[in-house]
Amino acid sequence: MVSKVTYIWMDGTEPTRKLRCKMKVIPTTTEVLTIDQIPEWGFDGSSTYQAKGSQSDLLLLPVYMIQDPMTVENDYLVLCEVFTP
Predict the structure, then answer these.
(1) DSSP-assigned states of every residue in 31-84
(2) Total structural domains in the chain?
(3) Cα(59)–Cα(62) distance, integer angstroms
């Protein structure tokens, strides 16, 4: 079984921040996922105005999740905080 997880975070656009997202398919052994089963995920922060090009590796840390109401079961929306690794 697999789950589609959509990671959601706020970018560094100014003056008004925008929501960003990216999706990942996660193999699961349980029918329902918990936040502890959602892995951290890296991304390039220079493309979201959150880091300079030379130090652009950032980390998405899942902090809250719900089942995606627009899709089938086993799909999740995950709100994330952004950290430097």
Answers:
(1) SS--GGGSPPEEEEGGGGTSS-GGG-EEEEEEEEEEE-TTS-TTEEEEEEEEE-
(2) 1
(3) 10
Identify the burial level of 56 via C-beta atoms within 10 angstroms of its C-beta, where 0-12 means exposed, 13-18 middle and 19 or more buried. middle
- Global pTM? 0.90
Burial (Cβ within 10 Å: 0-12, 13-18, ≥19) of residue 68:
middle
The series of mean pLDDT values per 10 residues for the chain, 85 residues long, is 94 92 92 92 84 84 96 91 89
CATH number of residue 58's parent domain: 3.10.20.70
